[in-house]
């Protein structure tokens, strides 16, 4: 758990400890930056109370960053990247763990958070086309997700906000870790290398963190509307091998491109409401952004990839109907000029 100067880290720790399975699995390491004593004192109460379960480590380099304009206004993001590099080096090289679930101090967790990661870990290990498992759906707002908490997907978009990483991937990333905006850097083709993440239909984390480097703008517009799963699923008793690429892709393409075409106007006007699913086609960046805006899903791209997309397809619910915003069949890959 990454922490800085929010004493409300207690809220996140309470949420995590409430659902943590008994036993030695899932030790909690809180890595703190910023040198903020009131926050440190709060974390220490958990170290003492949860003997041997919670470890508190402190990022030692609190030096100010000498940045020129315009980087200066993004100083917070530079400090976050510095902290991530140090902390993940500690986890993999000092503690010598083989995998880690990364969370931040402003998250709360679904009751099946640990079951979700326990069950997807063998899939992550088995499929070299996967490089992360995330608890997050960027389009996971209330009314935009199915009521089925079992639904899981592959996604080309790296989501973050509660995610699992293996040591072998960190060995690759650590030597070239960026000075700032680490999450967008991970989304670049040089790092992603066409690897994908598993993500849920309904989020297994939600954020209460209005205070932070993004100044709360994104929180008020979007994050506070995200639905957190409340129906626990024991994923460890489910067969998740359908998420392995060779099993997933043929079914995915057959489902998406076997779905009837409709216009954005058809969807908004509920003209084909009797159908369980509809496909809206886009061929250009402008068509995607226009459709996304009208349908009220995330419009932005990172390295050409729309949020939650898999093979260019963004899947979401609208008025109880599954919608696939999709490129034409025979998709050839992302265009990194789409920003």
Describe the protein in words.
InterPro entries: Glyco_trans_13, Glycosyltransferase_13, Nucleotide-diphossugar_trans. This is Alpha-1,3-mannosyl-glycoprotein 2-beta-N-acetylglucosaminyltransferase. Keywords: Cytoplasm, Disulfide bond, Glycosyltransferase, Golgi apparatus, Manganese, Membrane, Metal-binding, Signal-anchor, Transferase, Transmembrane, Transmembrane helix. GO terms for molecular function: alpha-1,3-mannosylglycoprotein 2-beta-N-acetylglucosaminyltransferase activity; manganese ion binding. With 339 residues, the protein is of the alpha/beta class. The chain has two domains: 2-230, Spore Coat Polysaccharide Biosynthesis Protein SpsA, Chain A (Alpha-Beta Complex), CATH 3.90.550.10; 259-326, N-Acetylglucosaminyltransferase I, Domain 2 (2,3-Dihydroxybiphenyl 1,2-Dioxygenase, domain 1), CATH 3.10.180.20. Helices cover 32% and strands 18% of the residues. It contains eleven helices and 15 strands. A five-stranded mixed sheet has the order 4-8-6-9-7. Strands 1-2-3 form a three-stranded parallel sheet, with helices on both faces. The longest helix is centred in the first third of the chain and has 20 residues, at 75-94. The chain is globular, with a radius of gyration of 20 Å. 38% of the residues are buried. The mean pLDDT is 96.
């Amino acid at each position: 758990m990454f922490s800085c100067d929010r004493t409300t880290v207690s809220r996140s720790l309470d949420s995590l400890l409430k659902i943590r399975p008994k036993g030695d699995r899932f030790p909690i390491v809180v890595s703190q930056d910023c040198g903020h004593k009131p926050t440190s004192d709060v974390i220490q109460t958990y170290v003492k109370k949860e003997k041997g379960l919670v470890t508190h480590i402190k990022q030692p380099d609190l030096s100010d960053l000498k940045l020129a304009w315009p980087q200066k206004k993004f100083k917070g993001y530079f400090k976050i990247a510095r902290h991530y590099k140090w902390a993940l080096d500690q986890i993999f090289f000092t503690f010598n763990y083989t995998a880690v679930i990364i969370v931040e101090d402003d998250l709360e967790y679904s009751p099946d958070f640990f079951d979700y990661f326990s069950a997807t870990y063998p899939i992550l290990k088995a499929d070299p086309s996967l490089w992360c498992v995330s608890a997050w759906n960027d389009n996971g707002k209330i009314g935009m997700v199915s009521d089925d908490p079992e639904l899981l997907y592959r996604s080309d978009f790296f989501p973050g906000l509660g995610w699992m990483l293996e040591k072998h991937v960190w060995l690759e990333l650590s030597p070239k870790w960026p000075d700032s905006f680490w999450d967008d850097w991970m989304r670049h083709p040089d790092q992603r290398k066409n690897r994908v993440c598993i993500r849920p239909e309904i989020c297994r984390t939600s954020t209460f963190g209005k205070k932070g480097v993004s100044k709360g703008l994104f929180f008020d517009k979007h994050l506070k509307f995200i639905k957190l799963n409340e129906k626990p699923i024991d994923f460890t008793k489910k067969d998740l091998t359908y998420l392995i690429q060779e099993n997933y892709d043929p079914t995915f393409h057959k489902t998406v491109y076997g779905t009837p075409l409709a216009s954005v106007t058809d969807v908004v006007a509920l003209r084909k409401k009797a159908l369980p699913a509809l496909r809206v086609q886009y061929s250009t960046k402008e068509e995607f952004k226009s459709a996304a805006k009208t349908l009220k899903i995330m419009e932005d791209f990172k390295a050409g990839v729309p949020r939650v997309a898999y093979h260019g397809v963004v899947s979401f619910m609208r008025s109880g109907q599954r919608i696939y915003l999709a490129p034409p069949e025979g998709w050839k890959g992302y265009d990194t000029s789409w920003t």
